[in-house]
Design brief:
Chain lengths: 115, 115
């Protein structure tokens, strides 16, 4: 079946603008995660959804970042008033209901560049 | 602070040779450890998973070891192929019970296999 998909694959925006990044998880995966990966670094946890609710948003860096998953499937990561430091690859992953051994399957990421 | 450190940062080997990548972690509590392979421009893909009680796990030419006492893991690649060129990321699950499946990523080892 299809894996995790993310759109757009690349996004270039200007400082101060608003952006939305979309994630389509694997069908049937109730857990969804967002990570941010800066160049030469490993991914950093941002937020985790179990179903429609954000079960853990402790990784969001500030209140400019927000994510939703209204129907428990597709999720959108929203960044307001973008800053150059927000430039990174944003990865989405999904898994079966969050269990410690359940593998997270990653999408290809969205590369965000803030000019 | 929960951390995962990897060495070397980068590695170049000739096709057909073996190599070993290292991972040290200070994550607590500890649930499991995975090695991921991340090709350029793609999301990470899980190679192996080990829990506290497991010492070694193989997946084809990949063999991972875990010493939970010293909090060290290694990934050994046998008879390397050009397609092994990628970033290899050590990932520790710091979740517990039914809590967030929160992954803590190392910065990765960038492996280049040359003909």
């Amino acid at each position: 079946g299809a894996g995790v998909s993310q759109t757009p694959s690349n996004k270039v925006t200007e400082k101060g603008k608003y952006v939305e990044l979309r994630c389509d998880p694997i069908s049937g995966h109730t857990a969804l995660y967002w990570y941010r990966q800066s160049l030469g670094q490993g991914p950093e946890f941002l937020i985790y959804f179990q179903g429609t609710g954000a079960a853990d948003d402790s990784g969001l860096p500030n209140d400019r970042f927000f994510a939703v998953r209204p129907e428990g499937s597709v999720s959108t990561l929203k960044i307001q008033r973008t800053e150059r430091g927000d430039s990174a690859v944003y990865l989405c992953a999904s898994s079966l209901p969050s269990g410690l051994d359940n593998e997270q399957f990653f999408g290809p990421g969205t590369r965000l560049t803030v000019l | 602070k929960n951390q995962v450190e990897q060495s070397p940062q980068s590695l170049i080997i000739l096709e057909g040779k073996n190599c070993t990548l290292q991972c040290n972690y200070t994550v607590s509590p500890f649930s499991n450890l995975r090695w991921y392979k991340q090709d350029t421009g793609r999301g990470p893909v899980s190679l192996t998973i080990m829990t506290f009680s497991e010492n070694t796990k193989s997946n084809g030419r990949y063999t991972a070891t875990l010493d939970a006492d010293t909090k060290q893991s290694s990934l050994h690649i046998t008879a390397s192929q050009l397609s092994d060129s990628a970033s290899y990321i050590c990932v520790v699950n710091g979740g517990y019970g039914g809590a967030t499946n929160k992954l803590i990523f190392g910065t990765g080892t960038l492996l280049a296999v040359q003909p």
